[in-house]
Model the fold of this input.
Amino acid sequence: MYHERMNGVELFLLGRTLMKIGEEAMPTEGVGPQTTGVRTVLVVVSDLREHPETSVGEIAARTGLPQSAVSGAVARLKEAGSIVTETDPRDRRRVLIRHAPEVSPRLEQVRASSIEGAIAAAAGTDDPGQVAEIVAMLQSLAQRLSPGSAHR
Done:
């Protein structure tokens, strides 16, 4: 499928594959059944990184997610202690969403999780050297392409 030069379609499909691998790598112990999927929650988290004080409606408008899905993700993040909400003092009908001032136990669990198993499964290898090489490439890409990266 890959040619000498990657095109936009291949890049998009690679991104989707990486999203699926990331979902597989997310720890789920103790989370229980959820009505909102991991992908939706992560899209909301990503939007919150770029807009640290926002509302459900604003997130829905920016992401294209239905407002009900954003509300579900916000409820899940609030229950996990990752975000806090409060009534906007300027508009009592609006609820502001912010990252929690302290790192929640759930966020600590996610940050401590390893991606090596999911990478090995996706690559179809149990060779630690190959897995380490892929992880190193992904870390390099993340450093260069992530929002706020100094290399952009």
Notes: The first strand starts at residue 83 and ends at 88. The helical segments are 8-25, 38-50, 56-63, 67-79, 105-112, 116-123, 128-145. Residues 81 and 129 are 37 Å apart (CA to CA).
